[in-house]
């Protein structure tokens, strides 16, 4: 029987989040065991295929060109380079490769064609392929699906209300539109957020309302803890307490029982005991590799030691869904439409972003 509910309210989610911790953990761990093997964790490797120089003003992001951070940008990686990294990831136990490009949105043309070739190449290695490339049209989503893309990541980041305090160069509704475009294909949706940006618990609950009330719910929900990077508007933000992470993971697990809940950025700040609590609370996916796009991540060997200690096993590829078929470029029925969608540019002022970008000049 499918017990997934799609009409969660903020009040219901807050009541879960604020439960006595032992009650919250008991409930989330019980739900986790009903829907997943509690000793299996999916391992993904993130490859930054195009780093830095981004036109957006996401207040947490060291890749935004307007902030003076130590990120060194690069052009789009070559297909053989990406393939070599994917093979390394596979050898070290990853079942999924997630390719991230610091773009506002996907543009039809040679660079997108190159990304499609990367998708084909990695799918043929029998690994799940995910991309995070910014906003996407429906036609672009279909082209990615045809190449063999398994998942598309597009985070909501936070609540609609607090979103206006984080980003001014695009709107919350654009995020939803991209998710909607991905949903018109067989690609699975990966969408989550970041905690510790100065948002309230209500904002966290609101974000979970939006995600859990999507029908179907995202197959994957990353929960990131802000990594406050020097030079970004959020550089002085205090790190969150581990208890907030555990509560967020547990609440996410309860409201999205089938979803893979992913421990993402900020994991270096969590010791093994804390991570074990997160797995118990319902997290069943991590990113491996020493870097998450541009911020630090635990060493792969450290992760494998932790898996051994906790008796965890990495999930095999395509255990939760079928491997997509790859259509070669020359056999493709789809082509670039050269659309120029009107993604919004709200342009409201976010003081802390303005101050930091002026300092960076
Ligand atoms: S989060 Fe993505 S869109 Fe925002 S500034 Fe960073 S790279 Fe650009």
From TrEMBL:
Residues 337-354 have a biased composition (Basic and acidic residues). Binds 1 [2Fe-2S] cluster. The cluster is coordinated with 3 cysteines and 1 arginine. Residues 222-314 form the Biotin and thiamin synthesis-associated domain. Pathway: Cofactor biosynthesis; biotin biosynthesis; biotin from 7,8-diaminononanoate: step 2/2. [4Fe-4S] cluster binds at residues 54, 58, 61. Residues 336-361 are annotated as: Disordered. One of its GO terms (molecular function) is biotin synthase activity. It catalyses: (4R,5S)-dethiobiotin + (sulfur carrier)-SH + 2 reduced [2Fe-2S]-[ferredoxin] + 2 S-adenosyl-L-methionine = (sulfur carrier)-H + biotin + 2 5'-deoxyadenosine + 2 L-methionine + 2 oxidized [2Fe-2S]-[ferredoxin]. Gene3D superfamilies: Aldolase class I. Its cofactor is [2Fe-2S] cluster; [4Fe-4S] cluster. SMART domains: BATS (SM00876), Elp3 (SM00729). The keyword Transcription does not apply. Residues 44-251 form the Elp3/MiaA/NifB-like radical SAM core domain. Belongs to the radical SAM superfamily. Biotin synthase family. Catalyzes the conversion of dethiobiotin (DTB) to biotin by the insertion of a sulfur atom into dethiobiotin via a radical-based mechanism. PANTHER family: BIOTIN SYNTHASE (PTHR22976), BIOTIN SYNTHASE, MITOCHONDRIAL (PTHR22976:SF2). This is Biotin synthase. It comes from Flavobacterium azooxidireducens. The lineage of its organism: Bacteria, Pseudomonadati, Bacteroidota, Flavobacteriia, Flavobacteriales. The gene is bioB.
